[in-house]
Design brief:
four-stranded antiparallel β-sheet; Immunoglobulin-like; 1 helix
Length: 121
């Protein structure tokens, strides 16, 4: 089980999964990422109706030489995370703000139900 937790946090390409939080605000979903050591110009965000992907290069590499029982040396150069969204969203209406290492993305939900006008007499 421990290996599964560690594998979920990074891969051999030097990517680290950022911490994030999802918040449902009724008509929109807000997802906040912690991206320390990142400049705004290094962030890439991609969204579809069902997924959100964030990638960002770090200003400096972070190296951990002692980690758990295996004691292996690991260097991280960037963050990468893909999330399956809890509801369908309109990616064209999404907005993002980055301040002090925190990326906040707001995605408006797609209305699942619309009224249909009936024509005729």
């Amino acid at each position: 089980m421990r290996d599964g937790i560690i594998d979920a946090m990074w891969n051999n390409d030097g990517y680290l999964e950022p911490l994030y939080e999802e918040e449902d605000r009724g008509g929109e979903i807000v997802i906040t990422f912690a991206l320390p050591y990142v400049d705004k110009k290094e962030i890439e965000v991609y969204a579809t109706k069902e997924t959100l992907e964030v990638m960002a290069s770090m200003r400096k590499s972070v190296c951990w030489e002692r980690w758990g029982i295996t004691q292996r040396k690991i260097t991280f150069k960037s963050f990468k995370k893909q999330i399956r969204l809890p509801e369908n969203v309109n990616p064209d209406g999404a907005t993002a703000e980055f301040k002090n290492g925190i990326l906040k993305i707001t995605l408006p939900k797609i209305k699942e139900k619309s009224s249909i006008k009936i024509s005729g007499k």
